[in-house]
Amino acid sequence: MISDNMKIIDGINHSQNLIESVKELILKSERLNKRKPSIAVILIGENSASEIYVKNKIKTAENIGIISKKILYNSAITEKELLNKIKELNQQKDIDGILVQLPLPMHISEDKVILSIDPKKDVDGFHPINLGNLFLGNNNGMIPCTPLGCIYMLKKELGPLNGLNATIVGRSNIVGKPLQSLLLKENCTTTITHSKTRNLSEFTLKADILIAAIGMTEFIDNSYVKDKATVIDVGINRKKINDKIKILGDVNFNDVINKVNLITPVPGGVGPMTIACLMYNTVKASFLRNNHEFKEIIFDE
Ligand code: GUN
Which positions are annotated as active-site residues? Predict the structure, then answer.
């Protein structure tokens, strides 16, 4: 009998493996550029979730030898001031990556901010040039970190994904849409569903790979899951239970565990991979910006 533990995709372990490869790339980058790779992270306002994400990103960068520059603003900063700061960072030769933590205060346009980042320094992969390249099936631009982390784990766990049915629940620009492009590139048959999809389970029940990225706490129960499906839970939902904040996914883990082939837990699944992929993108930027050849390690096999 297969124990539940054997069905768990260990995102912490996968992220540590990727980080080990990134560390080697950092050393190589340092030899070529005569300096360490670097990232500037901008955080605006007070959002406790964003503060935690940024803290984890900076801590990981510092632990592995990426120089990080944390730039904090209170929410009174104007859009113009922020755009000026990004312009300055774009021009700074010793900055390889720029990340503006989202969401932004209402008075600042997310679109304008993303467009203002030099696509070569856009380690989030949100700039239309990077998303456009991804849409065209090119991997040489920056690829959004969460989808990249999902593909990394899927390929490591399942091997080639050729011909598998992949259904994504959620159509965000950060996860759902880029992940569809990546899965297509891996020769999956892809379906994107969302909050207005009629008879959602008709689509999810066909999925060999089911991606839950809708931001609704434990929405996916076993009635949506095909027998022996591989489930990737992208959700990070905060819920207060007995005065303690618990992080829950978009999938009801206990309800689906008997049915699945493999599943990512929350926490400890997609989250750590997102950070590892940010480190990967930063070192990748440090090669490509300086016209050094970069060999992808995520799509190698
Ligand atoms: N907010 C939630 N996820 C992300 C992310 O991947 N990048 C940025 N910049 N902000 C986020």
Answer: 57, 101, 124
Nearest-angstrom CA–CA distance, 88 and 158: 43
CA distances to 88, 147, 185, 222, 229 from 124, in Å: 18, 11, 20, 33, 29
Taking every pair of Cα atoms in the chain, the longest distance, rounded to a whole number of angstroms, is 61
Q: How many whole angstroms separate alpha carbon 9 and alpha carbon 18? A: 15
Residues of the chain with CATH 3.40.50.10860: 34-118
Alpha carbon of 101 to ligand 1 centroid (Å): 5
Cα 274 to ligand 1 centroid, rounded to whole Å: 9
118 lines ligand 1 (CB under 6 A): no
Residues 189-237 pLDDT 10s: 999 999 999 999 999 999 999 999 999 999 999 999 999 999 999 999 9
Would you tell me which CATH number, out of the four given (3.20.20.150, 3.10.105.10, 3.40.50.720, 3.40.50.10860), belongs to the domain 34-118?
A: 3.40.50.10860
**What are the pLDDT digits (tens) for 71-124?**
999 999 999 999 999 999 999 999 999 999 999 999 999 999 999 999 999 999
* CATH 3.40.50.720 is held by the domain 144-270: yes
Q: Is the pTM of this model over 0.90?
A: yes
What Rg do the C-alpha atoms of the chain give, in angstroms?
19
